[in-house]
Design goal:
Number of strands: 25
Strand content: 15-25%
Oligomer: single chain
Number of helices: 25
Distance between the termini: 44 Å
Length: about 800
């Protein structure tokens, strides 16, 4: 420890003598370590960090699974049947995210919570912070009690214990406050921060709950899956109409917390994020190793003296590694601070998805991230310093003490050259990746959405949360849409249950009349929305056949439906769809009155998908979105719509108030994020590479001053000297570009799910990126070459 402490003190004195170089190295390390720490925080928040519940490894997530590989939430009848598997599950529970309108003296507030089964908290092992949680009798009786989250309790009630057994006005009904859940628990739906929970008795027809169960102590996940397979087979025999082709899936908590249909996309995006961060760190390590090689070259005489006085080569390596690790620790501390601030910003971000639900992922720095950062810091210090330390320890003692070490020329710089070529290769990969995202953004802006977004705005209202009956809701909507159409800016307005590019999904079973599912297969699931008259006119979606919905399509009139051209072609290839009928698995029958052109429904990069539209008057929806097309300033128009809503109901909370342009931007968030991140990283890579190249060429000029003087004396011209200096450097650059192009073409496939309409070997990107990198490197190499051209032959020879 005394030796280590002495080495550390000497390292600090050495760094203090070169404050500028030390600051550059620490800042470079901080950026690389911060990038890796943030990327690990993201992966930790999504995939690794367990929820704050008891023994999360004994919890399984329950889903419906179909023979076509699709997964869905479970129905309440499924849950009731699964809960009876007492030899497999110690308990089962369901949760259903829902919006609530909280009333109070300060006005109403729209929040999100969950309807859960009464055994929800006991299955998860969550304890109350104060009061109590639900008991089974409250589920069966449908008692109106509520459990608050710790954060909501602190925010709305200032952490008062006096709220127990008080009433909370939810959706116009009074709920008795039973207790507060433990700190840190906000539900099991990844990304949704629930403010409260109410018990929800199972509905024999509802099919949209997230299920989970706790395994009995001796039961494995594989045994649970086998039991669910037997249950599915039994239900298919007993009730084939509603269970044909339906299977059940039990996934471990860590595997099932992300909806299975989205898991591959999340894993792909996580792989890209981690890979980019590691490339940034590798680039920083290569740059710093090059700088340390230069520093070690200037200390060869010092190292030779140490060796002459009896120091072993291992002792020299340890001293140099101590110096590098001390730099790495400083960079790691600064990097963790940067990562902490970045993750705080990311955690505070709230993205609104379907029905205005705010999504937030806790990606904060915790013990795992700190441990990871410490390991990265130490490994980075060793990686950066080991090569320069080994090179310096091989100093030729006699040559160095005679002062002739620098005449060894570029033969001692091979490591520097390898590092430089590696820097260029990494930069090439990052610049090419950024170029692919830029090209994807260009393609995305040219994609035909199927509707005209200019001038479109949306505002959502949930009248069900205001306590309106179905009949009252219909009267309010009729009056409201009439008032909005009378606004001076309004060109057209309508209503829908799902606005375009809404990050949500609603499906229904639908098939041509007479359809009978094959053995072992279920009914086809089709995405759908309910819309009001003038919806297609407002969005300017072309009508290809038949007519739009009108005021005569009421709840008392025959059921009708409009299909998009993809679904119409699937059902009746080559024939007309209007006048035909479609049916549902539950026996519903609707006449097809029109066919409209396909649009983009969930994201702008999606493939054409089948879609069905039903009239709102026949669907009974009370949570609707106003879609209106107006002129002038979109924000001013949205305020006018809000005033019209509050003229009808002053207490109605508005949500998801936005323009269609903002919806498009949200849909393009992965691409926009990729462009921003890789642009920043690409610029960082260019800066580090150019600085590294400049340092390498400057070192070359410094060490070959005598040689250049001799060449000058023998008649070498300016261009000969410039080529001598720049030519070798550019050879390394070209080698790095070739390696980077090869790696970039091979790794581009990992970006496939994040790109829109871009060839992974896009010629524009893979021609422009090498040209840009070559030009930047040429400038970096030319600057020290100019100094070489000015070398005076006589002065250089006298210096030697």
């Amino acid at each position: 420890m005394q030796v280590l402490w002495a080495d550390l003190r000497f390292a600090l004195r050495t760094h203090a003598k070169r404050p500028a170089a030390t600051a550059v190295i620490v800042a470079t390390l901080a950026l690389g370590i911060a990038a890796t720490s943030v990327s690990f925080s993201l992966v930790n928040g999504f995939l690794i960090r367990p929820p704050p519940i008891e023994q999360p490894d004994r919890i399984v997530r329950l889903y419906r699974r179909f023979s076509n590989g699709q997964y869905f939430t479970i129905s309440d009848p499924d849950f009731v049947a699964m809960r009876e598997l007492r030899d497999v599950f110690a308990g089962a529970a369901v949760e259903e995210p829902a919006a609530f309108n909280v009333g109070g003296s300060g006005g109403s507030e729209r929040i999100w919570g969950e309807r859960v089964s009464a055994g929800y908290f006991s299955v998860l092992g969550v304890k109350p912070a104060i009061g109590r949680l639900f008991v089974p009798s409250e589920e069966s009786a449908g008692d109106q009690v509520v459990v608050l989250s710790y954060g909501f309790w602190k925010r709305r009630f200032a952490g008062s214990n006096a709220l127990l057994d008080e009433t909370l006005l939810l959706n116009g009904h009074r709920f008795r406050i039973a207790g507060v859940a433990s700190k840190g628990f906000s539900g099991m739906t990844l990304g949704l921060v629930s403010d409260l929970w109410i018990p929800n008795p199972p509905d024999r027809t509802f099919g949209g709950s997230f299920g989970m169960a706790r395994l009995n102590p001796t039961v494995t996940v594989q045994q649970a899956r086998a039991a669910l397979d037997r249950l599915a087979a039994r239900l298919q025999r007993e009730s084939p109409a509603g269970n044909s082709g339906v299977l059940f899936a039990a996934l471990s908590e860590s595997d099932g917390r992300i909806f299975p249909m989205l898991r591959s996309s999340v894993l792909g995006a996580s792989t890209v994020v981690v890979t980019v961060a590691l490339l940034v760190l590798a680039l920083a390590c290569a740059n710093i190793a090059g700088l340390l090689l230069v520093r070690a070259a200037g200390r060869r005489t010092e190292i030779a003296v140490r060796l002459a006085l009896g120091a072993s080569r291992g002792r020299i390596i340890l001293q140099l590694l101590t110096e590098t690790v001390s730099l790495s620790i400083a960079g790691g501390g600064l990097g963790v601070l940067l990562a902490w601030q970045t993750t705080r910003f990311l955690t505070a971000m709230h993205v609104t998805i379907a029905r205005g639900a705010p999504i937030s992922i806790d990606v904060g720095v915790d013990g795992r991230v700190l441990a990871f950062s410490v390991i990265v810091t130490i490994v980075t210090g060793i990686v950066c310093g080991l090569t320069p330390a080994l090179d310096a320890s091989r100093t030729d003692l006699v040559t160095a003490l005679k002062g002739g070490e620098h005449r060894r020329g570029l033969d001692q710089s091979r490591l520097r050259h390898v590092l430089l070529a590696a820097q260029v290769a990494v930069s090439m990969v990052l610049i090419a990746g950024g170029g692919l995202f830029v090209r994807s953004l260009q393609h995305a802006r040219q994609i035909d959405l199927g509707f005209e977004p200019a001038g479109l705005v949306t505002t959502s209202i949930d009248l069900g949360l205001q306590g309106y009956s179905m009949a009252d809701s219909q009267r309010v909507w009729d009056r409201l849409i009439a008032d909005i159409r009378r606004l001076p800016r309004t060109q057209s307005a309508s209503l829908t249950t799902r606005a375009p590019l809404d990050l949500g999904m609603v499906e229904t079973t639908l098939a041509p009349e007479g359809y009978q599912p094959a053995e072992g297969r279920g009914w086809p699931a089709v995405e759908a929305a309910s819309v009001a008259p003038a919806f297609f006119h407002t969005l300017r979606i072309p009508l290809l056949e038949g007519r739009e919905f009108s005021d005569r399509d009421r709840a008392t009139s025959p059921d009708v439906v409009i299909l998009n051209d993809v679904l119409a072609h699937q059902f009746w290839p080559g024939g007309r769809a209007t006048g035909r009928y479609v049916t549902t698995a539950h026996g519903g029958r609707s006449e097809v009155i029109g066919v409209v052109r396909r649009t983009k429904y969930l994201s702008i990069g999606e493939d054409p998908k089948p879609y069905a539209y039903f009239p709102i008057a026949q669907s009974g929806a009370r949570s609707l979105t106003i879609v209106a097309r107006g002129s002038g300033d979109a924000r001013a128009y949205l305020r006018e719509i809000g005033d019209a809503v509050h003229a009808v109901d002053p207490a109605a909370p508005l949500y998801d108030v936005t323009t269609m342009g903002e919806r498009i931007a949200l849909s393009m968030a992965p691409t926009l994020g990729g462009v921003a991140a890789l642009t920043i990283v690409g610029l960082m890579a260019l800066a580090l590479t150019s600085v590294g190249l400049y340092g390498a060429v400057a070192q070359t000029v410094s060490r070959r001053t005598y040689e250049i003087g001799v060449r000058r004396a023998l008649g070498a011209q300016d261009r000969d000297v410039a080529w001598l200096v720049v030519g070798q450097a550019m050879g390394l650059v070209l080698l790095g570009i070739v390696c980077g192009l090869t790696a970039g073409l091979g790794s581009a496939r990992f970006l496939r799910s994040l790109l829109y309409g871009v060839d992974l070997a896009d010629p524009v990107v893979f021609v422009a990126a090498p040209v840009v990198l070559t030009l930047i490197c040429a400038v970096a190499a030319w600057l020290p070459a100019r100094r070489a051209i000015r070398i005076n032959a006589a002065a250089a020879l006298r210096c030697e």
